[in-house]
């Protein structure tokens, strides 16, 4: 039965006849990157009895953008999260569970609830000013935005930006307070409404947070585990991974791909070959040529990679001798410049890190990129100036510690996570996920249509890419490709 079928498939593909499970390559599968997608891809292969794989990771540990740091003056440190910090969407009743939530429970991760709208105070350049009413209006406007955005899909209207959407529903912020409350309801995208797709951001919100739309729940759990949020993925890896299946401190420079497999060259010149490779490198890494493909990726693939956006989300940590700020989880600061140190979170609270003296601000998008270019001392003094404005009756003391990660400049990341722009259409995303030949597969957070940007997006994509590779391995290379579109037509051509 199988013989003629295989032969037919072989003829149809014009491929070589060897139904190889055993080849001259070093490994069956190379997994490029050891973040959530890489670890879950590895677990998926192992569960299907493919053990001859190698995770190749540039840093000295697994976890990727789940990255923590011991922060603070000697003798008074806490482990803070430089990257992902929240489990976004958990589970409601017996509904679908966020797989990151499931891992957190399995590995006993310590988490705390954060109350975005119930535990918040507001400030502007003159000190404390109550504009919580404006915040409620912004929350309503955002809900309306996702509803109206959803209504546009069935009518096949072309996508526009969230800014267009806000304007069409009449939400037109003018004052610093209106701007900062708007920022606070969509900072998740780490870019401005001008830079974000109206439709995709609406479904992204729904699929994670809206139970009626298949989402997990609208809860956000903050990891406060002193082993780091990364503990959940490192503990998961420890259950199945043998040390010989991971190569740390190994930076990939080139990925050569052909019908015979994939050969990876490391920064120190070492070459490692595999029958298959799954790259999980961030969209930013793919965009910046930190890794060179040989031959160059086809144009349809390059266009997809360069058309999605890698956004940046930056947390700026300060530690003081003692807490002098608000007792809520969050505070907003309305500057004349939208996005200038707008959100503050105090960690010196009973349910977080009591006595830690730590507070942090968050900036995103273009503002993140701008501050990365400046020296630490300059950014620290800007932060102290803002705190001085928020607390006019307090002489702001000198911090005992200060740190912020530069995700955008880091050649292993080139940003924090992907964001979907209005000019990016579904076929672009189809092409972003698609394999190139049967040997080279693409995974990672950005490849998730429903959950791009999130940890759970990386998780599902790691599983999915590995499952495709499993079917390739069992079919000796003659497996199903993911769809791709050679050229993406304009459904409403410009008439000039
Ligand atoms: C600041 C910040 C805040 C975030 N907050 C949240 C949050 O609260 N909740 C949430 O769900 N998500 C959040 N995210 C997003 C989440 O962290 C990511 O979606 C997820 O971790 C991506 O996993 P990944 O496996 O796709 O990619 P990665 O974690 O980036 O894994 C890819 C790996 O490849 C390695 N690598 C890159 N280039 C090379 C190379 N040339 N050679 C060898 N190795 C290389 C990297 O070191 C990395 O370990 C946040 C991200 C950031 C940065
Ligand atoms: C990786 O490099 C770090 C720092 O250079 C070193 O401390 C560590 O031992 C290395 N780890 C491995 C597994 O090679
Ligand atoms: C949201 O939509 C509702 C119902 O159409 C409307 O009453 C409300 O004013 C809108 N709110 C905002 C802020 O747009
Ligand atoms: C998001 O969910 C709302 C209902 O909560 C729905 O009206 C809207 O169509 C959805 N949007 C998208 C893009 O799926
Ligand atoms: C190159 O780096 C890899 C990964 O760290 C290491 O295993 C290998 O021994 C190195 N090779 C040389 C020649 O230094
Ligand atoms: C600061 O001090 C002045 C004068 O004592 C007082 O009127 C004002 O309310 C104080 N502001 C704050 C935020 O405590």
UniProtKB/TrEMBL annotation:
Leader sequence residues: 1-16
The positions annotated for binding FAD are 252
- Which terms does the record give in the GO molecular function aspect? oxidoreductase activity
Q: Which SUPFAM superfamilies match?
A: FAD-linked reductases, C-terminal domain, FAD/NAD(P)-binding domain
What Pfam families does the annotation carry?
A: Amino_oxidase (PF01593)
* Keywords, sorted A to Z: FAD, Flavoprotein, Oxidoreductase, Signal
Cofactor(s) listed in the protein's UniProt record? FAD
GO terms classed as biological process = polyamine catabolic process
Under which EC number(s) is this enzyme classified? 1.4.3.-
Residue span, Amine oxidase domain:
36-114, 208-469
Q: What is stated as this protein's family in its record?
A: Belongs to the flavin monoamine oxidase family.
Question: What is the name of the protein in this document?
Answer: Amine oxidase
Species whose genome carries this gene: Roridomyces roridus
